[in-house]
Amino acid sequence: MKRRPTIMDVAAHAGVSKSTVSLVLQGSVQVKPETRASVQRAMADIGYVYNRAAANLRSASVGLVGLVINDLRNPFFTEFATSLQMTLASHGYATVIANSDEDPALQAKLVGSMIEHGVAALVISPVYGEAGDTFDQLARTGIPVCQVLRKGDERTDLFPFASFDYAAGSADATRHLLAQGARNIAFVGGLAGRAITHERKIGWREVLRAADMTEVALHGKSSRGFGLQAADMLIADHPKVDAAVCFNDLVALGLMAGFARAGRSLGQGFRVVGFDDIEEAAQGWPPLSSVSCDIAGFARDTADRILGWMVQGQRPIPEIRSPVRLVARMSSLGQGE
Amino acid sequence: MKRRPTIMDVAAHAGVSKSTVSLVLQGSVQVKPETRASVQRAMADIGYVYNRAAANLRSASVGLVGLVINDLRNPFFTEFATSLQMTLASHGYATVIANSDEDPALQAKLVGSMIEHGVAALVISPVYGEAGDTFDQLARTGIPVCQVLRKGDERTDLFPFASFDYAAGSADATRHLLAQGARNIAFVGGLAGRAITHERKIGWREVLRAADMTEVALHGKSSRGFGLQAADMLIADHPKVDAAVCFNDLVALGLMAGFARAGRSLGQGFRVVGFDDIEEAAQGWPPLSSVSCDIAGFARDTADRILGWMVQGQRPIPEIRSPVRLVARMSSLGQGE
DNA sequence: CGCTGGAATTGGAACGATCCAAAAGCTATG
DNA sequence: CATAGCTTTTGGATCGTTCCAATTCCAGCG
Description:
homodimer; alpha/beta; 434 Repressor (Amino-terminal Domain); Rossmann fold; 3 domains; six-stranded parallel beta sheet; six-stranded mixed beta sheet; 12 strands; DNA-binding
């Protein structure tokens, strides 16, 4: 096994010094075009590959941004990851994505590994629960860190937090259902006790209280499966409920499937609004009303915040919330009644 | 801004030499426990972080495996990425995931960046079309590369390819529909001309030809939206079609939604089988029959192949196909006729 | 022809770890 | 107490690049 060629080999082959090769590598304007060409030919000839580790050792700055996601299977996060990566790429930064899979120990390992690799900044959607000293470690290194979509550490002055204005979204959804004639609006899905459940529920509750209506809430996993179950529970235990604000679209779709399974198709006076506006919401049948989050825009904003911090040293606002938008579709509209 | 502490600082603080600190870092058994403890305390005290770039420079081997995916938004790939990452992690390798988003230029950049960062191996699901010299470059470096799910380069002796036995799956699905009484089975979805479409279609075609039946195929994007359209097209132009093998579950779900929208619910003699067995197939209503791919198992196998190649130098078989399994659910079963 | 000054090139010193051979510290033994 | 045979520790060389100051090159000018 022959070893990888180095700039020295390139230099020898091109008949110049290693420094010149280095300058060519960095695209310096002060090397003569002919020299540049000959060096590039030499590189191609001997199959040179740049050794980033060596370069980083000397020059510290790596064009690398870390992204740690708690659940890569969730389309919400992959959409975010994809958009973030593309925005950062257009500014010359590469993104390394890792999935903590809701495992605090794994998250700690991943963050550690990214710090070791010398990422210039980190974007993290943290796992729930004890993150141990992960954030302390980050604080010590002093690299820019943005928390998104979930808050894993309360020190938002150190680790600015960005998310969506879920409360406003659920209030909008609830008011919309009221306007459509619903009189008994349940909240379905979301594990009790989680911050995000609380946020998506509080808007609903406020509107109901203002209208002096009874509150029925069924909590559970944010999955299609729970939606299915919830439909049976509503039909059996809460027959007066005539609409639901769901924790997310998956629950909403499950709920609609459950009603269909029970022989009660939509259009018989039951209305549903979901959350997230996933692709399927628009393309399933009946189309599902949903509170839409502009993930791509959010990702771009996040990239801008990180870039501003890295490049110009301007620390972002500690806590911001992006607006959301209700998209009304057939699942919540009056069906000729 | 104070600079990051180095092993020299740790050594000074602990009163030992840098070599000893290095040994502690590598978990060598030949340093006295007390010494180890004191070094570790020193590291914690001054907030030392390991500099992997420096380490790599000398020792070449990095516990890093690259994964380049063509579409991170596709749940199929995220499932694969997650499982692969977890298996590799249990063997002490970190996985760096990147998304080429079907962009050949971006793919080239990502692969280049990974080589530069010194990944020990690469798993790639390539983009369609011209990959340029990406694979030539990989061939030169000599690092283990596995192609999965898609073939971007024909030299499978250099870049072993692994995928699923889609042809057998679609043949199974078609035979199943025949057995259920279908007499006119269409193939729906998949862009014409793509290898994967061909594979998923060829089993269907063979069974139909053996049974001497007419072939109706509607090609298009592999999305829910196309399924919706396809339903209308079938109803209008091919009224005799009484079943469909779909390119994937999304198309199948769209197709079912389309029939529902047209007022023709399932159970009126139309049968559907999808491909991939995504979560929704089992949990939607009616449950969708689907050809199931064991992605997690496939990811584990891939990890094993890569590990075997990296660690023991045994090059995998050039081309393998994992078996798939038909899961029959209500969407394809006889409904009392 | 010698001089000047900008453009182009160069050699050597970092960077922060690992590796290796050699040294120092320990017993236990004759 | 010298010696052998361990275990533990150590200094220097090394990896492949960037950075910097210094040098060389070369055209233009008096």
